[in-house]
Amino acid sequence: MDHRAVAPPLLSRVLRGAEEERSAQATLAAWREYRHACELRLRLDPPVPGPVCNRSFDMYACWGDAAPNSTVTVPCPWYLPWHHRVQGGVVARRCGPDGRWVTDETGRPWRDHSQCEDLAQEQLLQRHAWLLEQFRLLYTVGYSLSLIALLLALLLLLLFRRLHCTRNFIHANLFLSFVLRAGAILTRDALLQRHLRPGPGHPLQLLGQQQAVAGCRLAQALTQYCVGANYGWLLAEGLFLHKLLVLAAFSGERCLPAFLLLGWGAPVLFVVPWVVVRYLYENEGCWERNEKAAVWWIIRCPILMAVAVNFVVFVRIVRILVAKVRAHQVSRGDTRVRLARSTLTLIPLLGVHEVAFALVGEGQGGGTLRLVQLCLQLLLSSSQGLIVSVLYCFVNKEVQAEVRRGWQRCRLGAPCPPGPRRAPPRGTRRYMAVGGQHPAPPHAGGHPIAESCC
Question: What are the backbone angles phi and psi of residue 282, rounded to the nearest 5°?
Answer without folding.
Answer: -145, 50
